[in-house]
Specification:
Residues 170-277 form the Acyl-CoA oxidase/dehydrogenase middle domain. The protein is of the alpha+beta class and 620 residues long. The protein has 18 helices and twelve strands.
Protein backbone atom coordinates (compact mmCIF):
# COMPACT_ATOMS: atom_id res chain seq x y z
CA UNK A 1 0.00 0.00 0.00
CA UNK A 2 1.35 3.42 -0.96
CA UNK A 3 2.10 5.95 1.77
CA UNK A 4 1.87 8.84 -0.70
CA UNK A 5 -0.37 11.69 0.48
CA UNK A 6 -3.80 12.07 -1.08
CA UNK A 7 -3.39 15.14 -3.30
CA UNK A 8 -7.15 15.65 -3.53
CA UNK A 9 -7.67 15.86 0.20
CA UNK A 10 -9.00 19.20 1.41
CA UNK A 11 -6.69 20.66 4.05
CA UNK A 12 -8.35 24.07 4.27
CA UNK A 13 -10.12 25.16 7.43
CA UNK A 14 -11.37 28.46 8.81
CA UNK A 15 -12.76 29.66 12.13
CA UNK A 16 -16.31 30.71 11.30
CA UNK A 17 -16.91 31.96 14.83
CA UNK A 18 -14.06 34.42 14.34
CA UNK A 19 -15.61 35.59 11.07
CA UNK A 20 -19.01 36.17 12.71
CA UNK A 21 -17.33 38.11 15.52
CA UNK A 22 -15.60 40.45 13.07
CA UNK A 23 -18.61 41.04 10.87
CA UNK A 24 -21.29 41.52 13.49
CA UNK A 25 -19.73 42.15 16.91
CA UNK A 26 -16.66 44.25 16.16
CA UNK A 27 -17.42 45.96 12.86
CA UNK A 28 -21.22 45.77 13.05
CA UNK A 29 -21.92 45.12 9.40
CA UNK A 30 -25.61 44.79 10.23
CA UNK A 31 -25.77 48.57 10.80
CA UNK A 32 -25.41 49.26 7.08
CA UNK A 33 -27.46 46.35 5.79
CA UNK A 34 -30.99 46.98 4.58
CA UNK A 35 -30.23 50.53 3.42
CA UNK A 36 -28.87 52.00 0.22
CA UNK A 37 -26.97 50.64 -1.55
CA UNK A 38 -27.38 47.37 0.39
CA UNK A 39 -31.18 47.27 0.62
CA UNK A 40 -31.43 43.63 -0.43
CA UNK A 41 -29.05 42.39 2.25
CA UNK A 42 -29.66 41.51 5.90
CA UNK A 43 -27.68 39.60 8.55
CA UNK A 44 -29.34 36.29 7.66
CA UNK A 45 -28.43 36.62 4.00
CA UNK A 46 -24.84 37.50 4.89
CA UNK A 47 -24.52 34.54 7.24
CA UNK A 48 -25.97 32.15 4.67
CA UNK A 49 -23.52 33.37 2.02
CA UNK A 50 -20.58 33.05 4.44
CA UNK A 51 -21.52 29.47 5.33
CA UNK A 52 -22.04 28.43 1.71
CA UNK A 53 -18.84 30.11 0.54
CA UNK A 54 -16.86 28.23 3.17
CA UNK A 55 -18.50 24.97 2.12
CA UNK A 56 -17.68 25.69 -1.54
CA UNK A 57 -14.08 26.48 -0.65
CA UNK A 58 -13.64 23.22 1.25
CA UNK A 59 -15.50 20.97 -1.19
CA UNK A 60 -14.48 22.43 -4.58
CA UNK A 61 -11.29 24.50 -4.24
CA UNK A 62 -9.45 22.91 -1.32
CA UNK A 63 -9.10 19.47 -2.95
CA UNK A 64 -7.42 21.10 -5.97
CA UNK A 65 -4.76 23.02 -4.03
CA UNK A 66 -2.08 20.33 -3.85
CA UNK A 67 -3.07 19.09 -7.34
CA UNK A 68 -2.38 22.52 -8.81
CA UNK A 69 0.90 22.78 -6.92
CA UNK A 70 2.24 19.40 -8.08
CA UNK A 71 0.86 19.50 -11.63
CA UNK A 72 1.29 23.15 -12.50
CA UNK A 73 0.29 24.68 -15.83
CA UNK A 74 1.51 23.67 -19.26
CA UNK A 75 1.90 25.51 -22.57
CA UNK A 76 0.96 23.50 -25.65
CA UNK A 77 0.45 24.90 -29.14
CA UNK A 78 0.35 28.46 -27.85
CA UNK A 79 -2.43 27.67 -25.32
CA UNK A 80 -2.00 27.48 -21.54
CA UNK A 81 -3.75 24.58 -19.85
CA UNK A 82 -4.51 24.82 -16.14
CA UNK A 83 -4.19 21.89 -13.71
CA UNK A 84 -6.86 19.15 -13.68
CA UNK A 85 -10.13 20.35 -12.17
CA UNK A 86 -9.48 24.08 -12.49
CA UNK A 87 -11.76 24.62 -15.47
CA UNK A 88 -14.60 22.72 -13.79
CA UNK A 89 -14.07 24.73 -10.59
CA UNK A 90 -14.19 27.97 -12.62
CA UNK A 91 -17.57 26.96 -14.05
CA UNK A 92 -18.93 26.03 -10.62
CA UNK A 93 -17.63 29.31 -9.14
CA UNK A 94 -19.51 31.41 -11.66
CA UNK A 95 -22.61 29.23 -11.74
CA UNK A 96 -22.90 29.86 -7.99
CA UNK A 97 -22.35 33.61 -8.46
CA UNK A 98 -19.47 33.88 -6.01
CA UNK A 99 -17.55 36.50 -7.99
CA UNK A 100 -20.58 38.74 -8.44
CA UNK A 101 -21.61 39.18 -4.79
CA UNK A 102 -20.50 42.82 -4.62
CA UNK A 103 -20.86 43.66 -8.33
CA UNK A 104 -23.56 46.07 -9.46
CA UNK A 105 -26.95 44.46 -10.20
CA UNK A 106 -26.98 46.42 -13.46
CA UNK A 107 -24.20 44.14 -14.70
CA UNK A 108 -25.44 40.87 -13.26
CA UNK A 109 -24.12 41.35 -9.73
CA UNK A 110 -25.81 41.00 -6.36
CA UNK A 111 -24.97 44.45 -4.96
CA UNK A 112 -23.54 43.21 -1.66
CA UNK A 113 -21.03 44.97 0.62
CA UNK A 114 -17.36 44.84 -0.27
CA UNK A 115 -16.76 43.50 3.25
CA UNK A 116 -18.74 40.39 2.37
CA UNK A 117 -16.91 39.99 -0.94
CA UNK A 118 -13.56 40.12 0.87
CA UNK A 119 -14.72 37.59 3.46
CA UNK A 120 -15.66 35.16 0.68
CA UNK A 121 -12.38 35.81 -1.09
CA UNK A 122 -10.42 34.97 2.06
CA UNK A 123 -11.98 31.49 2.16
CA UNK A 124 -11.23 30.90 -1.49
CA UNK A 125 -7.70 32.31 -1.33
CA UNK A 126 -6.91 30.19 1.70
CA UNK A 127 -8.34 27.09 0.06
CA UNK A 128 -6.57 27.61 -3.27
CA UNK A 129 -4.60 30.80 -3.75
CA UNK A 130 -3.38 29.91 -7.23
CA UNK A 131 -6.86 29.21 -8.59
CA UNK A 132 -8.61 32.28 -7.21
CA UNK A 133 -6.11 34.59 -8.92
CA UNK A 134 -7.74 33.88 -12.30
CA UNK A 135 -11.27 35.10 -11.40
CA UNK A 136 -9.84 37.75 -9.06
CA UNK A 137 -7.99 39.42 -11.92
CA UNK A 138 -11.03 39.21 -14.15
CA UNK A 139 -13.07 40.95 -11.43
CA UNK A 140 -10.46 43.70 -11.06
CA UNK A 141 -10.24 44.32 -14.81
CA UNK A 142 -14.03 44.54 -15.04
CA UNK A 143 -14.07 47.10 -12.22
CA UNK A 144 -11.66 49.32 -14.15
CA UNK A 145 -13.86 49.21 -17.25
CA UNK A 146 -16.91 49.93 -15.09
CA UNK A 147 -15.23 52.98 -13.54
CA UNK A 148 -13.47 54.46 -16.57
CA UNK A 149 -14.91 52.86 -19.70
CA UNK A 150 -17.44 54.30 -22.09
CA UNK A 151 -21.07 53.21 -21.91
CA UNK A 152 -20.47 51.05 -24.97
CA UNK A 153 -17.46 49.37 -23.34
CA UNK A 154 -19.42 48.68 -20.16
CA UNK A 155 -22.27 47.17 -22.12
CA UNK A 156 -19.93 45.04 -24.20
CA UNK A 157 -17.59 43.69 -21.51
CA UNK A 158 -18.99 43.80 -18.00
CA UNK A 159 -21.63 41.09 -17.95
CA UNK A 160 -19.37 38.60 -19.69
CA UNK A 161 -16.48 39.38 -17.33
CA UNK A 162 -18.46 39.46 -14.08
CA UNK A 163 -20.24 36.31 -15.25
CA UNK A 164 -17.08 34.37 -16.02
CA UNK A 165 -17.55 33.94 -19.75
CA UNK A 166 -14.45 36.10 -20.30
CA UNK A 167 -11.44 36.42 -18.03
CA UNK A 168 -9.16 39.41 -17.50
CA UNK A 169 -5.63 40.51 -16.64
CA UNK A 170 -3.55 43.58 -15.87
CA UNK A 171 -0.42 44.00 -18.02
CA UNK A 172 2.19 46.43 -16.68
CA UNK A 173 5.57 44.75 -16.28
CA UNK A 174 8.10 44.55 -19.11
CA UNK A 175 11.62 43.08 -19.21
CA UNK A 176 13.20 46.51 -18.69
CA UNK A 177 10.29 48.04 -16.74
CA UNK A 178 9.45 46.29 -13.50
CA UNK A 179 8.88 48.68 -10.61
CA UNK A 180 9.94 51.47 -12.99
CA UNK A 181 6.65 51.31 -14.91
CA UNK A 182 7.38 54.59 -16.65
CA UNK A 183 10.08 52.88 -18.72
CA UNK A 184 7.42 50.91 -20.61
CA UNK A 185 8.15 50.48 -24.32
CA UNK A 186 4.88 48.93 -25.45
CA UNK A 187 3.42 51.17 -28.16
CA UNK A 188 -0.07 52.05 -29.30
CA UNK A 189 -0.48 53.54 -32.78
CA UNK A 190 -3.85 55.07 -33.56
CA UNK A 191 -5.69 53.55 -36.50
CA UNK A 192 -8.16 55.28 -38.84
CA UNK A 193 -11.16 53.64 -37.13
CA UNK A 194 -10.18 55.08 -33.73
CA UNK A 195 -8.73 51.89 -32.34
CA UNK A 196 -5.01 51.29 -31.76
CA UNK A 197 -2.36 48.89 -33.01
CA UNK A 198 -0.65 47.48 -29.91
CA UNK A 199 2.92 46.19 -29.98
CA UNK A 200 5.19 45.07 -27.13
CA UNK A 201 6.03 42.39 -24.60
CA UNK A 202 4.74 42.08 -21.06
CA UNK A 203 6.18 39.68 -18.48
CA UNK A 204 5.08 38.19 -15.15
CA UNK A 205 1.43 38.41 -16.18
CA UNK A 206 -0.64 36.42 -13.68
CA UNK A 207 -3.38 34.47 -15.42
CA UNK A 208 -1.99 35.72 -18.74
CA UNK A 209 -3.55 32.77 -20.52
CA UNK A 210 -5.70 29.83 -19.44
CA UNK A 211 -8.37 27.45 -20.63
CA UNK A 212 -11.07 28.33 -18.09
CA UNK A 213 -12.76 31.15 -20.04
CA UNK A 214 -13.47 31.42 -23.76
CA UNK A 215 -11.71 34.77 -23.98
CA UNK A 216 -9.37 36.92 -21.90
CA UNK A 217 -9.58 40.71 -21.77
CA UNK A 218 -6.12 42.16 -21.18
CA UNK A 219 -5.76 45.67 -19.77
CA UNK A 220 -2.48 46.86 -21.29
CA UNK A 221 -0.42 49.92 -20.46
CA UNK A 222 1.13 51.36 -23.64
CA UNK A 223 2.45 54.65 -24.98
CA UNK A 224 0.85 56.46 -27.91
CA UNK A 225 2.90 58.47 -30.40
CA UNK A 226 4.35 61.72 -29.03
CA UNK A 227 3.17 60.97 -25.48
CA UNK A 228 5.14 62.46 -22.56
CA UNK A 229 7.96 60.41 -21.06
CA UNK A 230 7.47 58.42 -17.88
CA UNK A 231 4.20 57.37 -16.33
CA UNK A 232 2.43 60.55 -17.46
CA UNK A 233 2.55 59.30 -21.05
CA UNK A 234 0.98 55.90 -20.49
CA UNK A 235 -2.52 55.03 -21.67
CA UNK A 236 -4.62 51.98 -20.83
CA UNK A 237 -6.08 49.75 -23.52
CA UNK A 238 -8.61 46.94 -23.67
CA UNK A 239 -6.92 44.18 -25.66
CA UNK A 240 -8.88 40.92 -25.92
CA UNK A 241 -7.08 37.67 -26.67
CA UNK A 242 -9.72 37.03 -29.32
CA UNK A 243 -11.41 39.91 -31.11
CA UNK A 244 -15.09 40.25 -30.35
CA UNK A 245 -18.01 41.24 -32.53
CA UNK A 246 -20.63 43.82 -31.63
CA UNK A 247 -23.05 41.07 -30.52
CA UNK A 248 -20.45 39.58 -28.14
CA UNK A 249 -19.56 36.65 -30.35
CA UNK A 250 -15.91 35.80 -30.92
CA UNK A 251 -14.06 36.75 -34.06
CA UNK A 252 -10.47 36.13 -35.12
CA UNK A 253 -7.37 35.83 -32.93
CA UNK A 254 -5.96 39.20 -31.92
CA UNK A 255 -2.23 38.50 -32.29
CA UNK A 256 -1.71 38.04 -28.54
CA UNK A 257 0.67 35.12 -28.01
CA UNK A 258 2.18 33.39 -25.02
CA UNK A 259 5.96 33.44 -25.20
CA UNK A 260 6.45 31.29 -22.09
CA UNK A 261 5.09 30.41 -18.69
CA UNK A 262 7.30 30.87 -15.64
CA UNK A 263 8.25 27.92 -13.42
CA UNK A 264 8.00 29.27 -9.92
CA UNK A 265 8.66 28.59 -6.25
CA UNK A 266 4.94 28.58 -5.47
CA UNK A 267 1.41 29.30 -6.74
CA UNK A 268 2.20 26.80 -9.46
CA UNK A 269 -1.44 26.45 -10.46
CA UNK A 270 -1.45 30.11 -11.54
CA UNK A 271 -0.06 30.67 -15.03
CA UNK A 272 2.50 33.49 -14.92
CA UNK A 273 3.04 34.35 -18.57
CA UNK A 274 5.21 36.23 -21.00
CA UNK A 275 2.76 37.85 -23.44
CA UNK A 276 3.69 39.19 -26.86
CA UNK A 277 1.33 41.74 -28.38
CA UNK A 278 1.42 42.43 -32.13
CA UNK A 279 4.39 40.32 -33.19
CA UNK A 280 2.67 40.03 -36.57
CA UNK A 281 1.29 43.60 -36.52
CA UNK A 282 -2.21 42.26 -35.98
CA UNK A 283 -2.99 43.24 -32.37
CA UNK A 284 -5.77 45.78 -31.95
CA UNK A 285 -6.94 47.43 -28.73
CA UNK A 286 -9.29 50.20 -27.72
CA UNK A 287 -8.56 53.02 -25.29
CA UNK A 288 -10.24 52.68 -21.90
CA UNK A 289 -12.59 55.64 -21.96
CA UNK A 290 -11.86 58.44 -24.42
CA UNK A 291 -8.79 60.31 -23.08
CA UNK A 292 -5.19 59.31 -23.72
CA UNK A 293 -2.38 59.43 -21.12
CA UNK A 294 -4.66 58.51 -18.22
CA UNK A 295 -3.40 54.95 -17.97
CA UNK A 296 -1.66 55.04 -14.61
CA UNK A 297 -4.50 56.71 -12.74
CA UNK A 298 -6.91 54.18 -14.27
CA UNK A 299 -4.65 51.23 -13.55
CA UNK A 300 -4.15 52.40 -9.98
CA UNK A 301 -7.80 51.59 -9.35
CA UNK A 302 -7.19 47.98 -10.27
CA UNK A 303 -3.83 47.96 -8.50
CA UNK A 304 -5.40 49.19 -5.25
CA UNK A 305 -7.98 46.42 -5.40
CA UNK A 306 -5.23 43.95 -6.24
CA UNK A 307 -3.12 45.18 -3.33
CA UNK A 308 -5.98 44.61 -0.91
CA UNK A 309 -6.41 41.15 -2.40
CA UNK A 310 -2.71 40.38 -1.97
CA UNK A 311 -2.81 41.35 1.70
CA UNK A 312 -5.89 39.16 1.96
CA UNK A 313 -4.04 36.27 0.30
CA UNK A 314 -1.34 36.65 2.92
CA UNK A 315 -3.72 36.35 5.85
CA UNK A 316 -5.81 33.66 4.12
CA UNK A 317 -2.87 31.32 3.59
CA UNK A 318 -1.44 32.20 7.02
CA UNK A 319 -4.76 31.39 8.68
CA UNK A 320 -4.89 28.01 6.96
CA UNK A 321 -1.29 27.32 8.02
CA UNK A 322 -2.01 28.35 11.62
CA UNK A 323 -5.15 26.24 11.97
CA UNK A 324 -3.43 23.21 10.46
CA UNK A 325 -0.49 23.69 12.84
CA UNK A 326 -2.91 23.99 15.75
CA UNK A 327 -4.62 20.74 14.77
CA UNK A 328 -1.26 18.98 14.51
CA UNK A 329 -0.11 20.37 17.87
CA UNK A 330 -3.23 19.07 19.58
CA UNK A 331 -2.70 15.56 18.18
CA UNK A 332 1.08 15.09 18.15
CA UNK A 333 2.46 13.66 21.42
CA UNK A 334 6.12 14.27 22.12
CA UNK A 335 7.98 14.55 25.41
CA UNK A 336 6.71 14.96 28.97
CA UNK A 337 5.24 18.11 30.44
CA UNK A 338 7.82 20.69 31.49
CA UNK A 339 6.57 20.10 35.03
CA UNK A 340 7.83 16.50 34.81
CA UNK A 341 10.90 17.08 32.66
CA UNK A 342 13.19 15.04 34.94
CA UNK A 343 10.87 12.03 35.03
CA UNK A 344 11.76 9.62 32.22
CA UNK A 345 8.62 7.59 32.91
CA UNK A 346 6.23 10.55 32.75
CA UNK A 347 3.52 10.28 30.08
CA UNK A 348 4.11 12.05 26.77
CA UNK A 349 1.86 15.02 26.17
CA UNK A 350 0.52 16.72 23.05
CA UNK A 351 3.02 19.33 21.91
CA UNK A 352 0.39 22.03 22.38
CA UNK A 353 1.24 21.69 26.08
CA UNK A 354 4.88 22.77 25.58
CA UNK A 355 5.50 26.46 26.35
CA UNK A 356 7.38 27.34 23.16
CA UNK A 357 4.76 25.69 20.96
CA UNK A 358 2.07 27.66 22.80
CA UNK A 359 4.07 30.82 22.18
CA UNK A 360 4.29 30.08 18.47
CA UNK A 361 0.58 29.29 18.25
CA UNK A 362 -0.44 32.47 20.07
CA UNK A 363 1.95 34.52 17.96
CA UNK A 364 0.38 33.12 14.77
CA UNK A 365 -3.13 33.61 16.12
CA UNK A 366 -2.48 37.24 17.04
CA UNK A 367 -1.01 38.13 13.65
CA UNK A 368 -3.69 36.32 11.66
CA UNK A 369 -6.60 37.77 13.63
CA UNK A 370 -5.08 41.24 13.80
CA UNK A 371 -4.35 41.51 10.09
CA UNK A 372 -7.76 40.10 9.21
CA UNK A 373 -9.31 42.79 11.42
CA UNK A 374 -7.21 45.43 9.65
CA UNK A 375 -8.53 44.26 6.28
CA UNK A 376 -12.14 44.29 7.48
CA UNK A 377 -11.54 47.74 8.97
CA UNK A 378 -10.50 48.91 5.49
CA UNK A 379 -13.45 47.29 3.72
CA UNK A 380 -15.87 48.71 6.31
CA UNK A 381 -14.51 52.18 5.53
CA UNK A 382 -15.00 51.43 1.82
CA UNK A 383 -18.61 50.36 2.34
CA UNK A 384 -19.26 53.46 4.43
CA UNK A 385 -18.13 55.70 1.58
CA UNK A 386 -20.85 54.14 -0.56
CA UNK A 387 -23.48 54.48 2.15
CA UNK A 388 -22.65 58.13 2.87
CA UNK A 389 -22.00 59.51 -0.62
CA UNK A 390 -24.57 62.20 -1.35
CA UNK A 391 -25.81 62.10 2.27
CA UNK A 392 -22.78 63.19 4.30
CA UNK A 393 -19.94 63.95 1.91
CA UNK A 394 -17.57 65.08 4.66
CA UNK A 395 -17.83 61.74 6.46
CA UNK A 396 -17.63 59.90 3.15
CA UNK A 397 -14.36 61.74 2.48
CA UNK A 398 -13.03 60.67 5.89
CA UNK A 399 -13.82 57.01 5.20
CA UNK A 400 -12.30 57.14 1.71
CA UNK A 401 -9.20 58.75 3.20
CA UNK A 402 -8.84 55.88 5.64
CA UNK A 403 -9.14 53.38 2.78
CA UNK A 404 -6.33 55.15 0.93
CA UNK A 405 -4.15 55.25 4.03
CA UNK A 406 -4.65 51.59 4.97
CA UNK A 407 -4.10 50.02 1.52
CA UNK A 408 -0.27 49.97 1.76
CA UNK A 409 -0.46 48.65 5.32
CA UNK A 410 -2.79 45.84 4.34
CA UNK A 411 -0.74 44.84 1.31
CA UNK A 412 2.74 45.05 2.85
CA UNK A 413 2.16 43.98 6.44
CA UNK A 414 -0.39 41.36 5.42
CA UNK A 415 1.95 39.75 2.89
CA UNK A 416 5.10 40.02 5.00
CA UNK A 417 3.47 38.56 8.07
CA UNK A 418 1.56 35.97 6.05
CA UNK A 419 4.86 34.44 4.98
CA UNK A 420 6.28 34.62 8.50
CA UNK A 421 3.23 32.91 9.97
CA UNK A 422 3.62 30.10 7.43
CA UNK A 423 7.27 29.83 8.42
CA UNK A 424 6.27 29.59 12.09
CA UNK A 425 3.68 26.95 11.22
CA UNK A 426 6.43 24.79 9.71
CA UNK A 427 8.47 25.25 12.88
CA UNK A 428 5.47 24.17 14.96
CA UNK A 429 5.29 20.89 13.07
CA UNK A 430 9.02 20.34 13.35
CA UNK A 431 10.43 18.02 10.69
CA UNK A 432 6.94 16.99 9.58
CA UNK A 433 6.26 20.54 8.45
CA UNK A 434 9.09 20.43 5.96
CA UNK A 435 7.71 17.49 3.99
CA UNK A 436 4.91 17.48 1.46
CA UNK A 437 2.69 15.07 3.39
CA UNK A 438 1.49 18.16 5.26
CA UNK A 439 0.21 21.38 3.66
CA UNK A 440 2.25 24.04 5.43
CA UNK A 441 5.33 23.78 3.20
CA UNK A 442 3.15 24.63 0.18
CA UNK A 443 1.52 27.48 2.07
CA UNK A 444 4.97 28.89 2.80
CA UNK A 445 6.12 28.64 -0.82
CA UNK A 446 2.87 30.12 -2.10
CA UNK A 447 3.01 33.01 0.37
CA UNK A 448 6.48 34.30 -0.50
CA UNK A 449 5.46 35.98 -3.74
CA UNK A 450 2.80 38.09 -2.01
CA UNK A 451 5.42 40.59 -0.77
CA UNK A 452 6.75 40.96 -4.32
CA UNK A 453 3.89 41.33 -6.76
CA UNK A 454 1.43 44.19 -7.20
CA UNK A 455 4.28 46.47 -6.20
CA UNK A 456 7.01 45.19 -3.88
CA UNK A 457 6.51 46.02 -0.24
CA UNK A 458 9.11 48.76 -0.41
CA UNK A 459 6.95 50.40 -3.08
CA UNK A 460 4.04 50.18 -0.62
CA UNK A 461 6.18 51.83 2.05
CA UNK A 462 7.20 54.62 -0.31
CA UNK A 463 3.58 55.06 -1.34
CA UNK A 464 2.71 55.45 2.34
CA UNK A 465 5.40 57.97 3.27
CA UNK A 466 5.64 59.74 -0.08
CA UNK A 467 1.94 60.07 -0.94
CA UNK A 468 -0.49 58.84 1.68
CA UNK A 469 0.81 60.65 4.77
CA UNK A 470 0.40 64.02 3.05
CA UNK A 471 -2.97 63.42 1.40
CA UNK A 472 -5.64 65.99 2.22
CA UNK A 473 -2.99 68.03 4.01
CA UNK A 474 -2.28 65.19 6.40
CA UNK A 475 -5.95 64.85 7.42
CA UNK A 476 -6.06 61.12 6.70
CA UNK A 477 -3.12 60.41 9.00
CA UNK A 478 -4.52 62.71 11.67
CA UNK A 479 -7.84 60.89 11.41
CA UNK A 480 -6.14 57.55 11.98
CA UNK A 481 -4.02 58.81 14.87
CA UNK A 482 -7.03 60.53 16.39
CA UNK A 483 -9.08 57.33 16.28
CA UNK A 484 -6.32 55.42 18.07
CA UNK A 485 -5.88 58.20 20.64
CA UNK A 486 -9.63 58.24 21.35
CA UNK A 487 -9.56 54.50 22.03
CA UNK A 488 -6.58 54.90 24.36
CA UNK A 489 -8.25 57.70 26.32
CA UNK A 490 -11.45 55.68 26.72
CA UNK A 491 -9.72 52.48 27.86
CA UNK A 492 -6.40 53.37 29.51
CA UNK A 493 -7.81 52.54 32.95
CA UNK A 494 -9.42 49.26 31.93
CA UNK A 495 -8.86 46.72 34.76
CA UNK A 496 -7.66 43.97 32.39
CA UNK A 497 -6.38 45.78 29.32
CA UNK A 498 -5.07 49.00 30.87
CA UNK A 499 -1.35 48.14 30.72
CA UNK A 500 -1.64 47.05 27.09
CA UNK A 501 -3.66 50.15 26.20
CA UNK A 502 -0.93 52.32 27.72
CA UNK A 503 1.56 50.57 25.43
CA UNK A 504 -0.74 51.40 22.51
CA UNK A 505 -0.78 55.06 23.50
CA UNK A 506 3.01 55.17 23.52
CA UNK A 507 3.11 53.49 20.12
CA UNK A 508 0.64 56.02 18.72
CA UNK A 509 2.85 58.86 19.93
CA UNK A 510 5.90 57.17 18.42
CA UNK A 511 4.18 56.89 15.04
CA UNK A 512 3.10 60.54 15.17
CA UNK A 513 6.60 61.69 16.10
CA UNK A 514 8.24 59.57 13.41
CA UNK A 515 5.85 60.93 10.78
CA UNK A 516 7.09 64.42 11.71
CA UNK A 517 10.68 63.19 11.48
CA UNK A 518 10.02 61.91 7.95
CA UNK A 519 8.55 65.29 7.03
CA UNK A 520 11.65 66.97 8.43
CA UNK A 521 13.90 64.80 6.27
CA UNK A 522 11.90 65.88 3.22
CA UNK A 523 12.21 69.54 4.16
CA UNK A 524 15.91 69.40 5.08
CA UNK A 525 16.93 67.62 1.90
CA UNK A 526 17.83 64.36 3.63
CA UNK A 527 15.94 62.46 0.96
CA UNK A 528 17.96 59.20 1.06
CA UNK A 529 16.89 58.73 4.70
CA UNK A 530 13.26 58.46 3.59
CA UNK A 531 13.48 55.28 1.48
CA UNK A 532 16.02 53.91 3.94
CA UNK A 533 13.43 54.18 6.72
CA UNK A 534 10.11 53.76 4.90
CA UNK A 535 9.71 50.02 5.45
CA UNK A 536 10.34 50.35 9.16
CA UNK A 537 7.80 53.15 9.43
CA UNK A 538 5.14 51.12 7.58
CA UNK A 539 5.73 48.28 10.00
CA UNK A 540 5.43 50.68 12.96
CA UNK A 541 2.13 52.00 11.72
CA UNK A 542 0.84 48.51 10.90
CA UNK A 543 1.72 47.13 14.33
CA UNK A 544 -0.01 50.08 15.96
CA UNK A 545 -3.15 49.54 13.87
CA UNK A 546 -3.21 45.79 14.52
CA UNK A 547 -2.72 46.23 18.27
CA UNK A 548 -5.52 48.80 18.36
CA UNK A 549 -7.95 46.49 16.60
CA UNK A 550 -6.99 43.48 18.72
CA UNK A 551 -7.47 45.47 21.91
CA UNK A 552 -10.79 46.78 20.62
CA UNK A 553 -11.83 43.18 19.96
CA UNK A 554 -10.70 42.17 23.45
CA UNK A 555 -12.76 44.95 25.04
CA UNK A 556 -15.84 43.81 23.12
CA UNK A 557 -15.14 40.18 24.05
CA UNK A 558 -14.73 40.92 27.76
CA UNK A 559 -17.99 42.88 27.81
CA UNK A 560 -19.77 40.04 26.02
CA UNK A 561 -18.24 37.43 28.31
CA UNK A 562 -19.74 39.12 31.35
CA UNK A 563 -23.22 38.68 29.87
CA UNK A 564 -22.90 34.95 29.25
CA UNK A 565 -25.08 32.70 31.40
CA UNK A 566 -23.35 30.34 33.80
CA UNK A 567 -23.11 26.68 32.88
CA UNK A 568 -21.51 24.32 30.43
CA UNK A 569 -23.66 25.50 27.53
CA UNK A 570 -21.62 28.71 27.41
CA UNK A 571 -18.22 27.03 27.67
CA UNK A 572 -17.40 27.34 23.98
CA UNK A 573 -18.35 31.02 23.82
CA UNK A 574 -16.45 31.73 27.02
CA UNK A 575 -13.35 30.07 25.58
CA UNK A 576 -13.69 32.07 22.37
CA UNK A 577 -13.93 35.39 24.19
CA UNK A 578 -11.10 34.43 26.52
CA UNK A 579 -8.99 33.79 23.44
CA UNK A 580 -9.63 37.32 22.18
CA UNK A 581 -8.34 38.73 25.48
CA UNK A 582 -5.12 36.71 25.51
CA UNK A 583 -4.50 37.35 21.82
CA UNK A 584 -4.64 41.11 22.32
CA UNK A 585 -2.50 41.05 25.45
CA UNK A 586 0.15 38.91 23.80
CA UNK A 587 0.44 41.15 20.75
CA UNK A 588 0.34 44.40 22.71
CA UNK A 589 2.96 43.28 25.23
CA UNK A 590 5.26 41.28 22.93
CA UNK A 591 5.02 42.80 19.44
CA UNK A 592 3.81 46.37 19.93
CA UNK A 593 6.88 47.50 21.96
CA UNK A 594 8.83 47.20 18.68
CA UNK A 595 7.14 50.43 17.61
CA UNK A 596 8.87 52.50 20.28
CA UNK A 597 12.18 50.76 19.60
CA UNK A 598 11.83 51.39 15.86
CA UNK A 599 11.15 55.07 16.50
CA UNK A 600 14.31 55.24 18.61
CA UNK A 601 16.35 53.50 15.88
CA UNK A 602 15.08 55.88 13.19
CA UNK A 603 15.92 58.79 15.44
CA UNK A 604 19.57 57.76 15.39
CA UNK A 605 19.64 58.45 11.63
CA UNK A 606 22.14 55.68 11.00
CA UNK A 607 23.31 55.95 7.38
CA UNK A 608 25.66 52.95 7.23
CA UNK A 609 23.74 51.42 4.32
CA UNK A 610 24.19 54.67 2.37
CA UNK A 611 27.82 55.20 3.22
CA UNK A 612 29.20 51.73 2.50
CA UNK A 613 30.74 51.60 -0.97
CA UNK A 614 29.39 49.14 -3.49
CA UNK A 615 32.79 47.46 -3.59
CA UNK A 616 32.77 46.97 0.19
CA UNK A 617 29.79 44.60 0.21
CA UNK A 618 32.05 41.74 -0.87
CA UNK A 619 35.39 41.24 -2.56
CA UNK A 620 34.22 38.46 -4.90
Amino acid sequence: MSNAPNLQQNRYKADLREVRFLLFEQFKLDQILGQGPFEAWGPDEVQMVVDEAYKFSCEVLGPLNAVGDRTGCRLEGGQVYTPPGFKEAWNKLYEAGWMAVSAEPEYGGQGGPFTLHITIQEFMSGANSAFIMYPGLAFGAAEVIQLFGTDAQKEHYLRTMYGGKWGGTMCLTEPQAGSDVGSSRTTAKKLPDGKYAIRGTKIFISGGDHDCAENIVHLVLARVDNAPAGTKGLSLFIVPKVRTNADGSLGEANDVTVGAIEHKMGINGSATCVLNFGENDGCVGELVGTVENQGMSQMFRMMNGARISVGLQGVAVASAAYLNALEYARDRKQGPSINNWKDATAPRVAIVEHPDVRRMLLDMKSRVEGIRALIIKLTRHFDMTRVLQGKDDEQALYHQGQVDLLVPLVKAYGSDQGFRVCETAIQTYGGAGYIKDYPVEQYCRDAKVFSIYEGTNHIQAMDLVGRKLGQRGGANLQGFLGDVAAFVKANEKHPVLGKAVKELGEAQEAVAGTAMRLLGWFQMGKMPMVPLSANRFLEMMSETAVAWLLLDAAKIALDAQEKLPAGDESASERAFYEGKKHTALYYALNVLPHVRLSAEILGREDSSALEISTESFATV
